[in-house]
Specification:
Elements lengths: L7 H11 L8 E10 L4 E9 L5 E10 L5 E10 L7
Antiparallel strand pairs: 1-2, 2-3, 3-4
C-alpha cells in the first residue's frame, strides 16, 4: 500500500527531512544529462552549494509517465568530494 501525501507542505517537509541540503541552496548549476532507453527516463546531474557552503551533487531521475508528462521519480544526493558524474 502506498502512502498518500495530502498537501504540498507535508510533501516539502518530507523532502527536506530526507535531503536537508536542498532546503537553502546558495548556488546551483546543471551538469550532464543522460537519456535512458528510448527516453523513458532521464538522469539529470545538478551541482549545488548549501547554506554552509558545502558542495553536493544531486542526480534527479525524471520518468516519462503514460500521460506524456515527465515527473521527478527520485533523487540521489551525495557530498561532492570528487565528481564522478552519471
Amino acid at each position: 500500500m502506498r502512502n498518500s501525501i495530502s498537501d504540498e507542505s507535508r510533501f516539502l517537509a518530507m523532502i527536506l527531512q530526507r535531503y536537508p541540503p536542498l532546503e537553502a541552496v546558495r548556488n546551483y548549476a546543471f551538469g550532464r544529462s543522460k537519456l535512458v532507453g528510448g527516453g523513458e527516463f532521464i538522469l539529470q546531474e545538478v551541482m549545488l552549494a548549501d547554506r554552509d557552503g558545502s558542495d553536493w551533487t544531486a542526480i534527479f531521475e525524471i520518468r516519462l509517465l503514460d500521460s506524456g508528462v515527465y515527473k521527478v521519480n527520485g533523487i540521489r544526493l551525495r557530498p561532492n568530494r570528487a565528481n564522478r558524474g552519471i
